[in-house]
Design brief:
heterodimer, A: alpha+beta, Butyryl-CoA Dehydrogenase, subunit A, domain 2, four-stranded mixed beta sheet, 45% helix, 13% strand, B: alpha+beta, Butyryl-Coa Dehydrogenase, subunit A, domain 1, Butyryl-CoA Dehydrogenase, subunit A, domain 3
Amino acid sequence: MRADEPLPDLEAFRSEVRSFLRENLPHDIRERVKRGCNDFTTAELRDWMAVLAHRGGWSCPNWPAEHGGPGWSHAQKYIFEREYALNHCPKLPNGGSAMLGPTLMHYGTREQKNRFLPDILTGKTFWAQGYSEPNAGSDLASLKCRADRDGNHYVINGSKIWTTGAHTSQWLFGLFRTDSSGRKQQGITFLMIKLSSPGITVRPLPMFEGSDELAEVFFDDVRVPVDQCVGEEHDGWNVSKYLLSLERFGAAHIGTTTARLDRVKELAATTPVGEASLLDDPVFANKLAQAEIELRALDVTEQRFLLGSSGAEAAMLKIRGTEVQQMVMELLVEVAGVHAQLAPDTGQEDRPRHAPAGAEYAAHGYFHFRKTPIWGGSNEIMRNIIAKAVLGL
Amino acid sequence: MRVDASDFELTEEQRLFGESVARFLEQEYPFEKRARIVAGEPGFLDEHWRQFAELGWLGLAIPERYGGLGGGAGDVAVLMEQIGRGLLASPLLTSNVLAAGALVASGDRALCDEILPSTAAGETRLALAYAEPQARYDPFDVATSARRDGEHWRIDGSKIVVGFANCADQLIVSARTAGDRRDRGGISLFLVDPGSPGIDAHHYHTHDGGRASDLAFEAAEAVALIGREGGGLAPLEHALDFASLAVAAEACGAMWAVYEQTLAYIKTREQFGVPIGSFQAIQHRMVDVFMRCELARSMVHDAVAAWGRGDRAEMARAVSAARVNIGNGARLVGEEGIQLHGAIAMTDEVSIGHYLKRITMINASFGDPAWHLARYAGLMREQSGNSGNGDENASK
């Protein structure tokens, strides 16, 4: 795996991406992202996704051309991810584009691909991921939510939890128990379910810092046609493992962390301390430098992994990416100073006059991103994976 | 920002060279033999030094026009990584990388012609005397002075912890020819014969089997001014940055050696009837060691790539970033190597502790991680100040 494009072409590509994003991203969205807000309506996200899709499948940057994606090289994806974040574009729901889409491309039937991929690409359908259950978190394979075969349908009973975006999505893909007789990894089936199906109840789970992206999903005799099974029945564990192996690109979220670090610098340079700025304060400057160095090490490591190795890179990038992300979130709180105390629900009219832009999102973001070392396989599980797969322990 | 595979891949030639260095050190410098060699004077074998010359190691960093091989930063990193793995103690770094590098960077072609061919051939050893008692790691903090005395220059002052000056044939000495103690201007480099009258040398051992010396100069006569009067700091800093890159690669090699030995150990050492590597507490610590090693390798590649591109500020940033990340990572890996081995690693006969010794000496050379962090922060502020608007900065 290598980046074969000569450098000038990549520079032209970068300019093309940058100009398009700058010219087409609505100004108010850009400003809100820059301030640290990540609370957008489904309509706003869908409209933006449609703009990207129309440009040539940019809504699904990892997709090959044959499925309507841009068909980019790794180098181009890398550049797009960075430019997307550095130009303050909002994080899009990626259950369809990054998770289900590639899974369908590999395991899906022709009918499934034709039925589901186009609507993912245009942003018409948002997908939620139904994996975790109240008693199946890190030990995911012990999941119990049942799918019993009844003719040409599965009948689902049980519940899923920590389901990001279940209340803003139209469909859910997930893992369901179709057989309990063998090893717990066997007898799991990967199904796609319409969230408006009779028998489904979605209950939002407000997070402690005030955002509402999580939900619980309850299934009560929900009937799902068998043609919505992906891969073989009982083989869902392998289907989901394939997905995990794909996720290494962007697992470290370097683009968004870089944009936030730049924001820290910008704010620190305009925050007075004595006769100088916070950026001139050696204690703060050293912490900032440390974060930038760790981010740089991660960035180079991601590029090195992308350009040619295999193994448990995704796990390492996830661990280190979330660690560095949290270092930067902590710096955003520190730079906000006393204004870190402002809650994000302060209305514009009540907003204290002296508060720097985005101060109300500093601690909010810090609280919110405590989630990343937990989700997507906790960092402890990631260490288990590396210990087993790379270290041979 | 780059996306270029060549930044991360060794050439076939580099790969073969690295393997040959590893083979030589495994055969000629095994750990037990090393203990005997570093205990004797001058801390290495003349026979090895001659072999290093024949193998091209001594001329690797020296340009071809001065009798060297003209290797790049990537070649030197390959050599140093293996030296780190093999725990080789010798004047190669301080003489043929650091001091020779300062001479090359000075642009003094006549002196380079005179000295470097025999340096590359292993016949002349150099030592660079720049550090001073009050200066910590700042190479511009120079109290040593040089004054004209007829045709000659005479040097007064004190230099400390000069690597392998015990066996140096020529010294390169930084001294102030103008300005105040911490001025960046007014520093010059001189070639000095270590046997000259007026030099009092005190030689001692370092923890890692190396040698160092404190040198007191009292109206000592210099052989020659190197390069331009007052133009000494730039070549000195250039050479120190290159030496920093070299020890970053060396530390990276030491880290991987500790990782491999420790991993092998926890797979075989049994307690409670099972290998201790089956315990999650041990596994997670070992994974952290592994990740630090991977990050270190990335930072060596990054510094080498920046060196190749030649932008001075970016080179300094990349080198200091590498020294911070690798310095902290290497310390953690060395410490964890001991902890995961347990008591056996506290014994002199096991190499793990000796790796921590070398790592600790590296971290006290050419700037410690805290010094490099502060320098990086300073460069970061300059960059922020220059770019004005944060967005432009962000999309560099």
